[in-house]
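Reviewers of the previous submission asked for a worked example of the structure-prediction workflow described in the proposal, so we include one complete record here. The input consisted solely of the amino acid sequence. No template or homolog information was supplied to the procedure at any stage.
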Amino acid sequence: MSFKKKLWWQEFARPEIVERAKRCDIALLPVASIEQHGEHLTTGEDSWHAIKISERVAEKTDVMLLPCPWYGAHPYHHWFYAGTIPLRFETFMNLIVDVVRGASYAGYNKFIVFNCHGEEWAIPPAVHQLGLEGYFVVAATLWEIAKSTINEVLETPFTHADEAETSLGLYLVPEFVDMSKARDETHENLIDAKWTAGPGGLIKDRMPWYTATFAQPEYKQLKHGVVGYATKGTAEKGRKIVEAAVNWLVTLIDELKAKYPPGVKPPVK
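From that input alone, the workflow returned the following structure tokens.
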């Protein structure tokens, strides 16, 4: 009988969790969402990205994987669309803070929050609250750490349930993707797109997308729930994006291990 290697906190007993911290005291928390992703992707798409990429990282680095909470924070224009279950910003922030605090009692001293949903605006307050308490936390967002690869392999900008997310789905969870239902769809912003930069886009002389109420609610203007060109998605594009993200995270973790061995807490406070 073969056994799958255990990677997730919930798969271990308490003594095992404590013992593993003596070998590697870095814990990785994947965060994403339950959100409508058109008619061809499941509502768990973002969370599947976070989970599957995190597993690849843990297999290479031996970091502890904290349970993915599935639910996440959402910008205002995502709300009220059937299939999406948003957490309030304060709830999401408190969730991150409480998870890190709890994991620290088992001997974990370094934390990575890995974000695969449009909530990069909601994570920094949690990071800085934890910093005030003396915790070392790194928050990495998929389309930021793999930006160069994303801009190289995609034909269209990274948006939502689009070429990018469909490609990731086709590579990571193909059993949950129905390309016969993939649709291309666009929407108009309330201000010209020249003023804002979308996820993974270049921000030079522009605002990040989350700094303005620039869009109408998606449930009012999207028939299929797609922002972009889902039909252009391919598993090969997804593979390249995933490999770039995994390599970035593995390199960071290896550097942290070298500079701060197990039991050594970075002097945040």
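The chain has one domain: 9-257. We consider this example representative of the routine output the project will generate in years two and three.
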